[in-house]
Write a structure and sequence with these properties.
Protein name: DUF4148 domain-containing protein
Keywords: Signal
Strand content: 5-15%
Distance between the termini: 65 Å
Organism: Acidovorax soli
Shape: flat
Helix content: 40-55%
Strand order of the largest sheet: 1-2
Radius of gyration: 27 Å
Order of helices and strands: HEEHHHH
């Protein structure tokens, strides 16, 4: 009986402290107040080497994205064409089973 109480208290204390220990290596830490967090960039562990970062900056400088981002601009999104034609989509819908059509109707609403 006397061994269980300290062991139980130790386990409870560890369970309470575990989330705080897990966040020690993250960028954000919980904090009291209106903001609710503090930022600690020195706690962040990077997976990229310095050479990788310098190479990525050089590529961005050459293709113009670095200048665009430094001026606050948005990067253009590469346009992608449709992979199916309208007729293919319509034919796919017509070939669906009743259960699949019902599932789509339940998911997206039936317009009722």
């Amino acid at each position: 009986m006397t061994v269980r109480k300290p062991l139980t208290l130790t386990l409870i204390a560890f369970a309470i402290a575990a989330p705080g220990l897990a966040s020690a290596s993250s960028l954000y830490h919980p904090a009291d107040g209106e903001v609710g967090m503090t930022t600690h960039p020195d706690h962040m562990q990077s997976t990229m080497s310095r050479g990788d970062v310098l190479q990525a900056v050089e590529v961005a400088r050459r293709d113009g994205t670095l200048a665009t981002l430094s001026r606050g601009g948005a990067l253009p999104v590469k346009a992608t064409g449709a992979t199916k034609t309208r007729e293919q989509v319509q034919q796919e819908f017509l070939n669906m089973s009743a259960a699949e059509k019902k599932a789509l109707q339940d998911l997206y609403g039936g317009g009722r």
